[in-house]
Amino acid sequence: MARWGVLLLMVISLGMSLASSAQAYTAGGPIATEIQNLFWAITLFAVTVAVVVFGVLLGVLIRYRQSVSPRPTTWVEHDRRLEILWSVVPSIILVVILVLSIPVLVYTDTIPRADTRIQVIGQQFVWTFKYEDGTNSTPDLWIQENIVVRLEVTSLDVVHSFAVPDLGIKIDAFPGHMNNWWMKADKPGDYLIQCAEFCGVNHHGMRGVVHVFRAGSQPGIYGPPPQEPPTANVELLESGGNATEPWKIVPVNLTFAIGSKVSLHIMNSGSRSHDFRVDAPVNVSVPAIPPLQSVWLNFSLDVSSPTPIPYGPTNQSTRALGMAGTLTIQSGRVIVILLSTNPQGNFFIGPDPPQNPLGIAKGESVVFALKNADQLLGHNFQMGAPYESVKYAEIISPGQTVFIGPFIFDEDASNEYWCIIHRPTMFANYVVGSGSAAPAGIPLFDMTAIMTAVSVPVVFAYVFHHARRRGDSV
Predict the structure, then answer these.
(1) 330, 363, 389 - which closes a domain
(2) pTM score, two decimals?
(3) Cα 148 from Cα 167, distance rounded (Å)
């Protein structure tokens, strides 16, 4: 019974080791597919060898255990056939692996005809991508599915490594040197970018995402999706009203989210000149517009207002005739998130005024004002599950404030929020509603370590005990 217990313990330990080390991996491109196929071929050889070797070892332990064979009848010093076999078979396996590996190496190292060229620049601790048209993005990359991208990888400071595991990409970035590689994604999706070379204290936060979009969904084959500012036509009419307010403005109500960059096309359809103004706290205006002409008014909604804001001609008498409307800023509570470092170089992220954890009421509508108080470093923002969509991945320049939202927090939750670039040095906690308990899971790593610590000594003790003969010295 003892040997079956040991065998069962070994099987359980092996199964848990495999479970704890399993990772969700998706081969998203031809390079990754070739590498994955080679991996499974080599794994097949390794498993076959392991089964044969450990099978023979276990069979010998059982066949020649002390209770069955207390006194050996014969001694075998060596077996030439066996020695030849265990020398020739591994050599054949290595040759087969070499034959399988060479085509994969040639395929991955040969850059096919590229549809576009993108420069990948590593810098502590962020990736920047420069496209052929002169535009760039940080820290994410956008490409179309099924196109071949030539990557020109370099660094501005120390050695980095540009790695996209799901696409089979890993290429070093050296300062003053350009490494060429290529990339292709078979299907739309988001693929994690990670620096795979230790490059400093915040190496762990040097991440990004390759966004692969469908063909035809964007004007070009690369680059971030175009973000058009919210646009609205505002027409000033000296007719169309009623007996008390004969004039009219169309539309009477406008609604935009806080942080929006708004473009208003102001059209004067009347017979006299009219100016136009959006009142405090927005405080933007255009001068008098001649009859039957129009102008554009561009502004950013970087303020909040609990009540609608009047707009129309500056002259109150003109507004009283009906040429008046209201602008509603869609916001909710504005939470200022301060991102900074202190003189000692320690990172800080949190509400202004301070609050830890950041408390948000369940069902509350919130706008985040992300304020970078640093003088040199750029930052960005991300919240943890279940609010991963609350995110600003672009770099917030020193001294800049960015508004995102509004977001509706409709689920109790407890987690962290952080600067994506400098995580986990720069993180804090949040609680929505009553919060949530930590998700219950199976501690596979801990259990595997315990099982290994128990099973290994037991196996060695079993082998040592049953391999000895009576009368043998210890």
Answers:
(1) 330
(2) 0.52
(3) 12
